[in-house]
C-alpha cells in the first residue's frame, strides 16, 4: 500500500471514530437541551396563563363594580392576552401530553372568557338574573383554572425530576466514553506519528503555509517544490491552481476597468446629445428677429383696438406674450405661476379657435406657485390634448388642468381630457422615454415640444426619473400627472433641500 493510502486510511478511520463519538455526545446533548427547553416553555406558558387569568379576573371584578371605559379597554387587552397564551398552550402543552385534563384546561380558558363576555353583556342589558349566573360561572371557572394550573405545574416538576436523573446518568456515561476515546486516539496518533517521514511532512507544511498566504490574497509566493511521490501530485495541482486563480483575478480587474470606461463614454455621449439638442433649439430661436416680430404684433394690436376690435387686440397681445415667453432659454427655470400664465394665454387662443367645441377648466389650489419648474412644461401637455385627443371632436370636448399641493411639500399637476385616448402599447413607450424612437416622438404644433421631450427635461432638471405618470386607454381619454418635487436650485443644478 502506498504511503498516501496509509496516511489517508489512518486519518479517515480516526476522524470517523471521533466523529461518531462527537455526534453521539452532541446528539444526546441536543436531546437533553430540547427536553429542558420544552419543560421550561411549558412552565412559562402555565405561568403566563396563571398571571393573565388572575389579572383578567381582577379587571373583570373592577369593571363589574365601576363601569368605566378605561377599565373596559383594559379588560379587552387582558382578554386578548389570555387568548394568545391559550393559543401558545395549544402549541406546547397539548403536543406534549394530549390528555383529558389538558383538553379540559384548554377549553375552560375559552369558557372563562365567554362567561366574562356574557356577564358584561347581561350587565349592560340589565338582565340581573342571567348576569349573576354568569358571574358565578366566572368565579367557578377561575378557581378551577387556578387549581388545575397548580396540578399541571406539579406534573411538570415530576417530569423534570425524572429527566434530571436520566441526564445525570447519560452525562456520566458520556464522560467515560469521551475520556476512553481520547486516550485511544492519542495513543494511536503517537504510534503513527512516530513512523511518519520528514519527506512527507515537509511538503505538507509548505502547502499549508502557501495556502494561508493565498487566503490573504498574496499570489506572489513561490511555487511549492514538486517531489516524485504522491505529495508531488498535490503540489503540482496546487501551483497550477494558484496561477489560474491569479490570472482570473487579473482578467476580472481588467474587465471591470473596461466596463467603467465604457460607462463613462456612454454618459459623455448622452451629455453631448443633450447639449446638441439645446444648441439646436438656440439656433432655431436665433433665426427669428424677436424685436421686429414683437413690434409688428404691437402695431397690429393697437390698430385692432383703434378699429373697435378689442377681442382681436387682446388675442394679438396674448400671442405676443406667448412668443416672448417661448423665446426664453430652455435651461432657465421659471416659476409655476409664470407657467400657468403662459398656459392661460394659450388656452385663450385655442378657445378662440375651437369656440364651444372644447372647454378648458383651470383648477389651481396651491400655495407654492413660486416653485421653480422647467420652461414649457404644462403648455405642451395641453397642446397635445388639443391636437391628438380633441382636434377631431365636434362638441363636448373638455380639458381639465389641476394644480394641488401634496403632503410631502411637492406640487402635483394633472392634465386630463376626454378625447380618443392612447393605445396601451403607445402608453408603455411614452412611460419609458429612453426607448422611444425619434420618429415616433409626438411634437406640438406651436412649441415643437412633445410629451417625451417634457419627460426628459424634467429628468434633467430634477436629476431623477418617474415624475410623469400616464393613464390612458382608447376611447376613455388621457390623464398626464406630473409631480414637481420640493427642491431648490443651487448653481444651476437641482439638489434636495
Describe the structure.
It is a single chain. The chain has 497 residues and is of the alpha+beta class. Among the domains are: 3-193, Four Helix Bundle (Hemerythrin (Met), subunit A); 357-496, 2-Layer Sandwich (Heat Shock Protein 90). It contains twelve helices and nine strands. It has helices at 3-65, 69-96, 100-124, 128-194, 198-215, 230-286, 290-306, 310-326, 336-354, 379-390, 424-431, 451-462, and strands spanning 334-335, 358-365, 372-373, 397-405, 411-417, 468-473, 477-484, 487-490, 493-496. A five-stranded mixed β-sheet has the order 2-4-5-7-6. It has a two-stranded antiparallel sheet with strand order 1-3. A hairpin with a 3-residue loop joins strand 6 and strand 7. The radius of gyration is 43 Å and the shape is flat. The two termini are 78 Å apart. The model is unreliable at 438-446 and 488-497 (pLDDT under 50).
Amino acid at each position: 500500500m502506498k504511503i498516501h493510502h496509509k496516511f489517508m486510511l489512518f486519518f479517515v478511520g480516526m476522524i470517523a471514530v471521533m466523529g461518531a463519538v462527537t455526534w453521539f455526545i452532541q446528539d444526546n446533548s441536543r436531546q437533553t437541551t430540547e427536553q429542558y427547553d420544552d419543560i421550561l416553555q411549558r412552565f412559562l406558558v402555565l405561568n403566563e396563563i396563571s398571571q393573565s387569568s388572575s389579572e383578567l379576573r381582577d379587571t373583570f371584578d373592577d369593571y363589574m363594580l365601576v363601569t368605566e371605559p378605561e377599565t373596559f379597554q383594559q379588560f379587552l387587552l387582558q382578554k386578548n392576552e389570555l387568548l394568545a397564551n391559550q393559543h401558545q398552550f395549544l402549541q406546547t402543552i397539548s403536543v406534549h401530553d394530549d390528555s383529558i385534563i389538558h383538553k379540559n384546561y384548554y377549553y375552560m380558558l375559552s369558557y372563562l372568557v365567554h362567561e366574562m363576555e356574557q356577564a358584561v353583556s347581561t350587565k349592560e342589558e340589565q338582565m340581573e338574573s342571567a348576569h349573576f349566573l354568569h358571574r358565578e360561572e366566572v368565579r367557578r371557572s377561575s378557581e378551577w383554572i387556578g387549581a388545575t394550573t397548580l396540578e399541571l405545574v406539579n406534573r411538570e416538576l415530576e417530569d423534570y425530576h425524572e429527566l434530571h436523573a436520566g441526564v445525570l446518568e447519560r452525562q456520566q456515561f458520556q464522560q467515560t466514553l469521551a475520556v476512553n476515546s481520547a486516550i485511544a486516539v492519542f495513543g494511536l496518533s503517537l504510534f503513527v506519528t512516530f513512523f511518519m517521514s520528514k519527506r512527507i511532512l515537509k511538503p505538507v507544511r509548505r502547502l499549508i503555509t502557501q495556502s494561508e498566504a493565498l487566503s490573504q490574497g498574496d499570489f506572489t509566493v513561490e511555487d511549492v517544490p514538486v517531489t516524485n511521490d504522491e505529495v508531488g501530485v498535490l503540489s503540482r495541482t496546487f501551483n497550477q491552481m494558484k496561477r489560474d486563480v491569479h490570472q482570473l483575478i487579473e482578467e476580472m480587474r481588467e474587465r471591470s476597468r473596461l466596463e467603467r470606461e465604457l460607462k463613462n463614454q456612454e454618459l459623455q455621449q448622452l451629455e453631448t446629445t443633450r447639449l446638441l439638442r439645446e444648441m439646436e433649439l438656440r439656433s432655431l430661436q436665433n433665426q427669428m428677429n424677436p424685436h421686429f416680430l414683437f413690434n409688428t404684433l404691437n402695431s397690429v394690436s393697437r390698430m385692432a383696438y383703434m378699429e373697435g376690435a378689442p377681442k382681436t387686440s387682446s388675442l394679438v397681445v396674448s400671442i405676443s406674450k406667448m412668443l416672448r415667453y417661448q423665446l426664453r432659454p430652455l435651461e432657465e427655470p421659471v416659476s409655476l405661476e409664470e407657467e400657468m400664465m403662459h398656459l392661460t394665454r394659450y388656452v385663450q387662443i385655442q378657445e378662440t379657435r375651437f369656440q364651444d367645441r372644447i372647454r378648458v377648466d383651470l383648477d389651481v389650489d396651491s400655495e407654492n406657485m413660486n416653485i421653480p419648474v422647467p420652461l414649457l412644461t404644462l403648455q405642451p401637455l395641453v397642446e397635445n390634448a388639443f391636437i391628438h385627443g380633441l382636434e377631431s371632436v365636434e362638441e363636448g370636448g373638455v380639458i381639465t388642468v389641476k394644480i394641488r399641493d401634496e403632503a410631502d411639500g411637492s406640487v402635483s399637476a394633472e392634465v386630463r381630457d376626454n378625447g380618443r385616448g392612447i393605445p396601451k402599447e403607445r402608453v408603455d413607450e411614452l412611460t419609458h422615454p429612453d426607448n422611444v424612437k425619434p420618429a415616433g416622438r409626438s411634437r406640438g404644433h406651436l412649441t415643437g415640444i412633445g410629451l417625451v421631450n417634457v419627460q426628459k427635461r424634467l429628468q434633467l432638471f430634477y436629476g431623477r426619473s418617474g415624475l410623469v405618470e400616464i393613464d390612458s386607454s382608447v376611447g376613455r381619454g388621457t390623464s398626464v400627472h406630473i409631480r414637481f418635487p420640493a427642491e431648490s436650485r443651487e448653481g444651476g443644478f437641482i439638489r434636495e433641500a
